[in-house]
């Protein structure tokens, strides 16, 4: 009997050690569809878009795919949707054009890629990934980034193909209101982002945006800046942010959230909410963020009126858009 007991104990310790060595994680994909004053009429469409995005990302993770592949797949779905301010549906600059920013980062090696002020491509997030994987650089801008896209075989769309009637209408509204109101996010946000942890415990983050409605031509946003819009580190967590870009960039928001987790021993949710509150108190402007910690904790926060978000962990699907909202669904 004692022999059997010590054998069982031995087996238990061995399994624990193996698990520690090959960190087997429950995969999670968490997405956002932008922080801002989303009109009530667009809430359901945002929920639908976030659900499709989570489905795409989770499928990758379920099949044993990497966090990087999952966040790219999730963001691509939202870039194609039309309801979000990214890819098709991006807000317009003062001259009525779409100029997009995106960034991606992997937590295992801290490799990252970004693009800014890019025109006429469907999926900026995939171009950011190519910058990471195929160039010695971190960030490509404007005409150079578009040239690289062509070299990589990414089709160039015709001018105006990414412009939706909604984007055109809010630019008109913005122009009527005369000029850039730096304290508000004109156009109600809608940037998209995703963070994921895969079964090997690796993290990745991705963010994509059309920027700000009525922005100056050539304006580049926080979404293209590693540390502001996007950050991932397997030793801490992964973050994607959204909101007033100039404020997020000055606060290095994504990195600030992770440092709060690392040095102040806060959970992903505490760090996300508290860092956002501190940023808003100091810089008097608003934002939102989503976070996954290295242990698979989820963090969601925003100081804007709304931010649509959704995640899947196992068979649990969670989503919301208002403060403190958390709808839960049990999936098959
Ligand atoms: N809604 C957003 O997230 C906008 C983006 N952060 C920007 O400033 O361009």
Automatic annotation (TrEMBL):
Assigned keywords, A-Z: Autocatalytic cleavage, Hydrolase, Protease
Function as written in the Swiss-Prot or TrEMBL entry: Has both L-asparaginase and beta-aspartyl peptidase activity. Does not have aspartylglucosaminidase activity and is inactive toward GlcNAc-L-Asn. Likewise, has no activity toward glutamine.
Subunit structure: Heterodimer of an alpha and beta chain produced by autocleavage.
Organism name: Hypothenemus hampei (Coffee berry borer)
Active-site residues from the entry: 191
GO BP terms in the entry: proteolysis
Lineage: Eukaryota, Metazoa, Ecdysozoa, Arthropoda, Hexapoda
CDD domains: ASRGL1_like (cd04702)
Name the record gives this protein: Uncharacterized protein
């Amino acid at each position: 009997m004692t022999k059997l007991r010590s054998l069982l104990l031995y087996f238990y310790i061995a399994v624990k050690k193996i698990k520690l060595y090959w960190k087997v994680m429950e995969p999670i994909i968490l997405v956002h569809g932008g922080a801002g004053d989303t009109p009530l009429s667009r809430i359901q469409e945002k929920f639908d878009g976030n659900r499709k995005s989570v489905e795409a990302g989770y499928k990758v993770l379920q099949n044993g795919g990497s966090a990087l592949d999952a966040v790219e797949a999730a963001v691509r779905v939202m870039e194609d949707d039309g309801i979000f301010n990214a890819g098709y549906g991006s807000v317009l600059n003062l001259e009525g054009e779409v100029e997009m920013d995106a960034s991606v980062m992997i937590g295992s090696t801290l490799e990252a890629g970004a693009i800014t002020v890019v025109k006429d491509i469907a999926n900026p997030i995939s171009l950011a990934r190519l910058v990471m994987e195929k160039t010695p650089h971190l960030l490509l801008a404007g005409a150079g980034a578009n040239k690289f896209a062509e070299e990589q075989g990414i089709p160039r769309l015709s001018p105006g193909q990414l412009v939706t009637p909604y984007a055109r209408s809010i630019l008109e509204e913005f122009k009527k209101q005369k000029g850039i109101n730096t304290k508000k996010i004109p156009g109600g946000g809608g940037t998209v982002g995703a963070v994921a942890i895969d079964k090997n415990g690796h993290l990745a983050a991705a963010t994509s945006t059309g920027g700000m409605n009525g922005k100056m031509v050539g304006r580049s946003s926080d979404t293209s800046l590693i540390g502001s819009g996007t950050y991932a580190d397997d030793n801490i967590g992964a973050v994607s942010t959204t909101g007033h870009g100039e404020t997020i960039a000055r606060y290095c928001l994504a990195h600030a959230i992770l440092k709060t987790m690392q040095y102040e021993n806060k959970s992903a949710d505490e760090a996300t909410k508290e860092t956002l509150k501190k940023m808003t108190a100091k810089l008097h402007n608003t934002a939102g963020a989503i976070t996954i910690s290295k242990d698979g904790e989820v963090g969601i926060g925003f100081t804007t009126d709304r931010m649509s978000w959704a995640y899947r962990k196992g068979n649990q699907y969670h989503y919301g858009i208002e403060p403190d909202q958390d709808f839960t669904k049990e999936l098959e």
